[in-house]
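REQUEST FORM: STRUCTURE PREDICTION
Request ID: SP-0412
Submitted by: Lab K.M.
Chain count: 1
Length (residues): 380
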Amino acid sequence: MTKRLTHFVPLFAAILALATQAACAHTQSTAYLTFRFSETGIIGEWHLALRDLDDAIGLDVNDDGRITWGELLSRKEAVCAYALSRLHVWGDGHAGLLHIEDYLADNLSDGAYVVLRFNVEGIHQPSRLELDYDAFFDMDPKHRGLLRLEHDGQTLLGVFSSTTRSQVFEFGLTPARNPFFTFLKEGVWHIWSGYDHILFLLALLLPGVLLRRDGSWQPVADMRSAFVKVLKVVTAFTVAHSITLSLAVMGLVHLPSRLVESAIAASVVVAALNNLWPLFAEGAWMVAFGFGLLHGFGFANALRDLGLQHGQLALTLFGFNLGVEIGQLAIVLVFLPLALSLRHLLFYQRFILRFGSAAIIMVASTWLAERVLDFKWLPF
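STATUS: Completed
RESULT:
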C-alpha cells in the first residue's frame, strides 16, 4: 500500500500546480504586426493591446479603471517611444528607420488596441528582411506577436515569442514558409497555456477511471473501460471545439469575447461540480461536447484577427486545430496512466477527486466573477 501511495505524489503535485498556475490566467497577450511591400517602399501596421500598454507604460492617467481617447492622446509620445524601442527592421543588412504616420484606436475580438501605422525608411526592395521584436516579453513571457507580411502577391506568416524574437525572410531564394507548422506549434502552446481549457479537461478526466454506482464513485473494472470512457470525452470535446473554431474563424458565427470567456469559466465550474454532485455521471462526453462548443470560440479570436485569406486560413486553421489536439492528447497521456494505477484506492476516489474538483471550482469561480463583473481581483 505504501508503495502505491507514492504514486500519488506526481498526480497530487500536478493538480496543485495546475490550480495554482490557473489562478494567474488572464486574457491572452497578443499583438498583430503587418508589413506590406509596395513600389514606393514598406509600410507597416501594429496593433498593441491597451491592457498590455497600460501595464508597460501606464495609460489610465486618472486611475479610474477606464482608458479614454483623451488619455491615449496624452500618452501618444510614450506609446510611440515604447513601440519604436521594441521593433527593429533590417533590409540586406541595413537598418531601417520606422516613422509613425498615424496613431489610432481599434476594437478587436478580445478588446481595445492602439494602432500604429508607419513607414520603413532607408529600405526599399530588400532581398533579405530581418525583424527583431521585443514587446511585452519582460511582463508576460507568454505574449505572442502575430506577423503578417505581404510581398509580391504572397502572404507570409510568423509568430514572435519570448524564445523566437527574430524573423528572417529571404525573398526569391527559398520557398514561402508553410503556415501549417507554425500554427501547429501555436496550437500546442495555446492549449498548454490556456489554463481554463486545461482545468476543464482535467475536471472531465478526474472521474474518467471511475463509475457512479449506488450513490458513490467506484473504480472501473478494467483499463479498456476507462480508455473508452476517456476517449468519448476527448473525442466529444475535439469535435465540438473544432466545429465552432472553424465557424468563428471563417466569420460565420461571432460572439463577444467577454461573453465567451465568462461562459468558458462557467463551463469549468459546472464540469467540476458534476464530480461532486453528479447530474451526468455517465454522460461526461455530453458535457464535453456542449461546453466544447464554447471553448472553440475561445480558440478563434487570434486566428480571426489575423485577417487571412480563405486558402491560407484553411491551412492555418487545420494546423492550429491539430496542435490543440496534440497538446490535449499529451495531457491525457500523462494523467490517465497515473489515474488508472490509483483508481482502486479510496484516497483517489474520496480525496483526489473531491479535492481536485473543489480546487478547480474555486479557481474557475474567481475567473467567472472577474469576467462577468469586469474587475481584477488578482494582481495579474
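NOTES: Residues 1-26 have pLDDT under 50 and may be disordered.
Reviewed by: T.R.
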